UniProtKB/TrEMBL annotation:
This is 3-hydroxydecanoyl-[acyl-carrier-protein] dehydratase. GO terms for biological process: fatty acid biosynthetic process. GO terms for cellular component: cytoplasm. PANTHER family: 3-HYDROXYACYL-[ACYL-CARRIER-PROTEIN] DEHYDRATASE, 3-HYDROXYDECANOYL-[ACYL-CARRIER-PROTEIN] DEHYDRATASE. Gene3D superfamilies: Hotdog Thioesterase. Its EC number is 4.2.1.59, 5.3.3.14. Homodimer. It comes from the Bacteria. CDD domains: FabA. Keywords: Cytoplasm, Fatty acid biosynthesis, Fatty acid metabolism, Isomerase, Lipid biosynthesis, Lipid metabolism, Lyase. The keyword Lyase applies. InterPro entries: FabA, FabA_FabZ, HotDog_dom_sf. Its main location: cytoplasm.
Length: 725
């Protein structure tokens, strides 16, 4: 409704002396560009408007204008190419509406149809007003079906309330319809002469405000984003305009009290995932068979709220409809879930083929379609000490067919005296980072086999983990055992030069599931990785200690002779110390005993990045990058250092660290490569409790590549117990 400011100015200039009450104001054209998120309650909008020129067409005065809208000193919206005029009732009744040009129609006819697979599937194609009001009430499941229940996530993804709901029914929704193959919606709104908005706009000239028509278009685009299931990619988002996108409006008719209804025709022309899930559409509004308003390039995105755990970039997907988990310890399940024996399984890849995937000829593992990658950068499995797949069985699903899930079963033969057992403080414990790699590496195998990377055969794409969670259900001794991993590739979405895939994994040993979770991987160009802005959208976020200097902080230099006194192995406590060798990921650690955002303890750690670090050539061949799992391991060690320095295990005769049955969630929005100088991390202890003969620590953590925050870990847990004899 900010058009009121041009009305005020043109009235001040004396337009009524020209119109003499015989003509009324109507907007014809404008281009709106949002530069920031929508203003919030309590803020003040300031407009600066300029009328730039006038023209006379027959008896009609036209004027051309623009404005800028500010919140404080920040411009949030600008309007360019504004054109409005003054018209008689006869002029308005003879209007022919928006006439699409031959060029516009030809572009639609020749447009390539692109398929975007919905992340959630709704069987309904029509919707009533009451169902649309379920979205207004924050209950998308009441509109679309139970699969759309988000278990408390995204409470702000609502449509406008009853009075401002500008559609009465959705006549049809076609997710793959329209000239671009990305979606098509037809919706209707009934009109009555006594509708509330007619007498408000204007006195003695009742007409529906163009702003309300725009609101109806935005609501339908919001509806479509939810219909596709794009809300599963975010945690706590709001609907926002797409910043910097010019949205073109043409008005060539009016909606007045005598009109029975208006119809919306929505053509989705673009769907994307970066930096937030979004859609862009062209929308016509019709009265009868006449297009009265035409919107082009209307865009809506799902942007995480500032400060939410969802971050400012990609993406978290989970199609798992289990009750939301709030952190903390998980009880061991009572039932012993059995997994199938391997005797009847079909071998899909043996040790030699896995080696080819890691270091050799990828074509020999996945077939001739991958011959195009000879001599090029290509997704690889980790190799050497980080190769944690032995073979793959039972690979089900057809390459390049993404409508149905794809599944496999992998096996890893765990050496009884593996390097990661030797380097760990207690040799029966498998490090959490190794557990993560066993879970995640088969996801990379199934991603490659799916052929998703072949969507863009001309591009060199890089494979990266984005999000995930893992729930430890049991803590078996895995030395000398074979671990099975049942992996399911759930969804694949390609947009721009990016591909996003969601997976589920389930690890078992001796017939019992002990670790399971969900994860998201993506394929990105090198340019996209180089331009990553981290978890804070490019804004600087520093470790807590940088803004909270403390006299009580304790510095531990892990390269000094004093290290062993505090964190190293002691004869009386042979298993109560930090990991060593290849599992050591910090140079210095700083502890603030009662610091952090929970005031229960804080740890800062830093490691100088050495281009010769052992993990770079292992992960990956031709694409050296530090595994995110090792960043998680560094965080676990920082939490262990806090326990050691604080002497929390001294009540035990022979303490040891042990994994705790719990759920851990991670989010990665950046990478550490050999060219980087250092990494730093911090963690905030949020809970310390003693129960059942254990002391359990829980913390939230962050990790920086130099000064860019790129990892976020929730509910990392470390336990201390008596060493079993």
């Amino acid at each position: 409704e900010s058009g009121q400011c041009d009305l005020m100015l043109i009235s001040y200039l004396g337009i009524d002396f020209d119109c003499k009450g015989e003509q009324v104001y109507r907007l014809l054209d404008c281009t709106l560009t949002y530069l920031d998120d929508m203003p919030l309650e309590g803020q003040t909008l300031r407009y600066e408007i300029s009328i730039n020129s006038f023209a006379k067409h027959d008896q009609n005065l036209l004027f051309f204008f623009n404005y800028e809208c500010f919140v404080g000193n920040k411009m949030v919206l600008k309007m360019d190419n504004g054109c409005a005029g003054f018209f008689s009732d006869e002029d308005l009744s003879q209007g022919k509406g928006v006439i699409h040009t031959a060029q516009e129609l030809e572009l639609k006819e020749k447009a390539d149809k692109i398929k975007f697979p919905p992340l959630l599937h709704c069987t309904k194609t029509t919707f009533t007003r009451q169902e649309l009001l379920e979205i207004s009430a924050g209950n998308p499941a009441g509109c679309f079906g139970p699969e759309y229940n988000q278990q408390g996530k995204n409470p702000s993804l609502k449509n406008a309330p009853d009075q401002f709901l500008m559609s009465d029914r959705i006549m049809s929704v076609e997710p793959h319809g329209g000239p671009y193959g990305l979606g098509y919606i037809v919706a209707e709104k009934d009109l009555a002469p006594d509708d509330w908005y007619f007498p408000c706009h204007f006195k003695d000239d009742p007409v529906m405000a163009g702003s309300l028509m725009a609101e109806g278009c935005v609501q339908l685009l919001q509806f479509f984003l939810l219909h596709l299931g794009l809300q599963t990619l975010v945690e706590d988002a709001t609907f926002q305009p797409i910043h910097g996108l010019p949205q073109i409006v043409r008005c060539r008719g009016q909606v007045i009290p005598g009109d029975p209804k208006m119809t919306y025709r929505v053509e989705i022309k673009e769907i994307g995932l970066e930096p937030h899930p979004y859609a862009i559409a062209d929308i016509d509004i019709l009265v009868g068979d006449r297009i009265v308003v035409d919107f082009r390039d209307l865009g809506v995105q799902l942007a995480e709220k500032t400060g939410s755990t969802g971050g400012g970039n990609l993406l978290r997907v989970s199609k798992n409809q289990r009750k939301a988990y709030s952190g903390g310890e998980i009880k061991t399940p009572d039932s012993n879930i059995q997994v199938p024996e391997t005797s009847d399984r079909q071998l899909a890849a043996d040790e030699q083929m896995i080696w080819e995937f890691a270091l050799g000829d990828v074509e020999k593992c996945f077939g001739s379609e991958f011959a195009i990658y000879k001599g090029r950068s290509m997704q690889r499995n980790p190799n050497g000490d980080l190769q944690l797949i032995s073979r793959v069985y039972d690979l089900h699903g057809k390459r390049m067919e993404f409508d149905e899930p794809m599944t496999l079963v992998s096996e890893y033969d765990v050496p009884e005296d593996a390097w990661f057992f030797r380097n760990n403080s207690y040799p029966e414990n498998m490090p959490y980072s190794v557990l993560m790699e066993i879970a995640l590496q088969p996801c990379g195998f199934i991603s490659t086999h799916s052929g998703a990377i072949l969507t863009y055969p001309e591009l060199d794409l890089y494979y990266r983990n984005l999000d995930g969670n893992g729930t430890l259900l049991r803590n078996p001794d895995l030395r000398g055992k074979t671990v099975l991993n049942e992996v399911k590739l759930l969804t694949t979405v390609a947009s721009g030069n990016t591909i996003i895939q969601t997976h589920r994994f389930s690890l078992s040993c001796d017939g019992q599931i002990f670790f399971e979770g969900d994860t998201i991987f993506g394929y990105f160009t090198g340019e996209s990785l180089a331009a990553q802005v981290g978890l804070d959208g490019g804004k600087k976020a520093v470790p807590w200690i940088d803004e909270n200097a403390s006299d009580s902080s304790i510095l531990l230099d892990l390269n000094s002779v004093d290290y062993r006194k505090v964190l190293g192995e002691k004869p009386e406590h042979p298993h109560f110390h930090l990991c060593s060798g290849q599992l050591s990921f910090s140079d210095i650690i700083r502890i603030v005993p009662e610091g952090g955002k929970f005031s229960k303890g804080y740890v800062y750690a830093r490691k100088e990045v050495n281009p010769e670090d052992w993990f770079f050539p292992c992960h990956f061949h031709g694409d050296p990058v530090m595994p995110g799992s090792l960043g998680v391991e560094a965080i676990i060690q920082a939490l262990q250092a806090f326990a050691l320095q604080q002497g929390i295990g001294n009540s035990f005769k022979s303490p040891r660290f042990l994994p705790v049955l719990s759920k851990v969630a991670w989010k990665y929005r950046g990478q550490i490569i050999p060219q980087n100088k250092y990494m730093q991390l911090d963690l905030h202890v949020k809970n310390i409790e003693q129960k059942e003969g254990q002391v359990v620590f829980t913390a939230d953590a962050n990790l920086w590549r130099e000064d860019l925050r790129i990892y976020e870990i929730f509910d990392i847990v470390v336990g201390i117990s008596e060493t079993e004899k």
